[in-house]
Amino acid sequence: MTDGDRVLLEVRDLRIGIKGHPAVDGISFSMNEGEILGIVGESGCGKSLTALSIPRLLPEAALITGGSIRYRDRDRNRYRELTALREGELRKIRGREISMIFQEPRFSLNPLLRVGKQITETLELHGERDKTLMKNRALSLMQSLGLQEAEKLLPLYPHQLSGGMCQRVMIAIAMIHGPRLLIADEPTTALDVSIQAQILELVKKINRETGTAILFISHDLSVIQAVCRRVLVMYAGKLVEQGPVGEVFTRPAHEYTRGLLGSIPGRSSRGRPLTNIPGRVPPIEEARPPGCPFAPRCTAATLPCRKTFPPEISVGPGHSASCFAAPEQTGPEKED
Ligand SMILES: Nc1ncnc2c1ncn2[C@@H]1O[C@H](COP(=O)(O)OP(=O)(O)OP(=O)(O)O)[C@@H](O)[C@H]1O
Ligand SMILES: [Mg+2]
Questions:
Q1: How high is the pLDDT of residue 143?
Q2: Which of 196, 216, 277, 315 is the most interior residue, by most CB within 10 Å?
Q3: Per the domain annotation, does 89 fall within a domain?
Q4: Closest ligand 1 atom to the C-alpha of 284?
Q5: How would you classify residue 77: left for phi > 0, otherwise alpha for psi between -120 and 50, otherwise beta?
Q6: Counting atoms of ligand 1 from 1, which one is nearest the CA of 42?
């Protein structure tokens, strides 16, 4: 982190419970303005719940049970505690400042509404009335997002578009207000590999050209590597490692991250959970023993691992891990 970086989002000790079970269990991280931060981990580790808690779009069963999410507001340029905002205030932030794209663009779009209307609707929702302005904004945005002959697409319905085009439309909806934070939850998992690459390039272009920060979730490490600057590794509701992508992937400090990396060579993991590590992520209903949740699957686990969750230690510049086996870095290079 350099001095010029400004923190956009600061999540501290976030806890999310589902019917009394901890699904996200005390995670802390921050995000700078304009950065692309990845979250990786196997299915069920709490990636989506973490992301959905930011604009408070959690499923009904899920509750934020602790911690804080501080967000730097565009207009007032001060930090606001999102977990404490009233629904009405949050509605002003959602879509306008923080927007989302999901895995299944077809399911996220309204099948009964024309594409053009769906893009301009979010402008209307935030008070815009000028129809020509809205249409022109939609057209120029669609063109910049690689939707050719955008004018012809406006009257079409989602089922008349390909999966890749639907995702571009979703991105247009998410980007129309020029948000400060775009949350992308597995946005390419449901797409063909060639389309996937195009969308990833588009995500990077958006970040480059608009400076919108992107929280990018994927269980495909090669996708994270291609898109993100920093990455958070989650396991069973805990944050087990975080740091610059190059660092984490070349010098993984947590046994879980090592295990995930061991599953890259097959490259067949796209769209499926990573399964090369023997065992499975425990379901949240299962009583979690004390200590590191990965210990039962970890070949390096020792007695302390089964007793206490390891504290987060620095293992390199901007790189930390919660693992008793991680080589702690001390000395002048240490960065918090
Ligand atoms: N609506 C819900 N009702 C019950 N349990 C849920 C609900 N949503 C999530 N969970 C549970 O919470 C845990 C974390 O879910 P989450 O969706 O955040 O995982 P994820 O890391 O995004 O997984 P995936 O890679 O499969 O998308 C999982 O055990 C999941 O089963
Ligand atoms: Mg998910």
A1: 92
A2: 216
A3: yes
A4: 29
A5: left
A6: 25
